[in-house]
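Components:
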Amino acid sequence: MSEVAVVAYGAGNVASVQFALERLGASVRLTDDPAVVADAERVILPGVGAAGYAMTRLAELGLVEPLRAFSRPLLGVCLGQQLLFERSEEGDGVRMLGVIPGAVRRLAPEGDLPVPHMGWSRLTPDRDDPLLDDVAAGAYAYFVHGFACPDGPATLARADYGGAVPAVVRSANRWGCQFHPERSADTGATILKNFLSLPC
Amino acid sequence: MTARRIIPCLDVKDGRVVKGVKFVGHADMGDAADLAARYRDQGADELVFYDIAASPEGRTLDYGWIRDIARLLDIPFCVAGGIRSVEQAARCLDHGADKVSINSPALERPELIAEMAERLGGQCVVVGVDSRFEDGEWVVHKYTGDPDARRRAGKRTLDWLDQAQGLGAGEIVLNCIDQDGVRRGYDIEQLAAARARLTIPLIASGGAGAPEHFRDVFRQANVSGALAASVFHTGAIAIPGLKTYLADQGLEMRL
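Structure:
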């Protein structure tokens, strides 16, 4: 059975991520302990809300360096994906984990689309990746976000919301999902199952 | 783009789903968890749970119950009922809810919206608005969960929507009380007016009675989602058939 550490730092949808992993039979450890994170087989970094608050919490708990240094599979979910990038333009600007180059910007969709981007959008994979095995092009995933990651070489899949929104990103052994796999029905379950199967 | 959302709303009392007509008088519609699992399997895009007894009884939702629902669901869900503080909202989210919806407490103290948005992120702060046409304008009502306490809130609906959005709400559920439970269709005119005033997502509530009502509210009021209760609970409208029908009508649906 796969073991996975879910970082519980007070800025996230930890319970719903935990339950989704448990539905897949994973052994889940919720933790805010830097040593536990550093030793984990694989790590999920959830997160909703403000990037500034999330980074402050990670810093207070001493989790910034262990997360930056983590070399086995890591998955950032929603805000957790955004935190992987260098900085966010939220507020006066927030410095983030910086393991993927680029800045997170306020979502500004073309056309008369509401912000935040809230609801089910189709995924369009850009290239093959083990995280996206058995995920069909056009599968729906559930998004809730008002900021978006930069579309660059890290993008594995996009959603269209008045422009391209990076939906899945990867750099080395770090992956991110802008949507909520734990709330994306069968598509989300497939992605989480793929994450649990990634070689450590 | 996003698919249009079909959102069953479960009015819950002591773990049972109840549904009233025009908010007064309630009939038992089954166990809440059973019904939630059924809607999940039928392709509901999101669920709303409203603990109708919480606010009148001066308490908030049962966090253990939220946890049980969170374990069960792999689609997003929103909870409402008696949430009056940032701390209570945070605990709902900690126990697995994706969004919290506030109504009367936000009318009493609008800054609550801003406090919740700042701490939890606006995306999980839903403001529910009960609106009724009176004396030639749409006005907000409060305490609508309690027949003895319900009354006018002293605000025009469109003004309140502006204010709620400005304070950081992430989504509005506009419940048109004149239509609630009577199944004559959504209040297209009011919802279209609300849509024109808002930049955040808008969810229509109140009045669904036939598949055409969903088609009309999506086409004519351009809402992001449509919420309904009794037509789903009674089986009058089955979700899979509804979504197929709407897709055939040219609306983007998650099938």
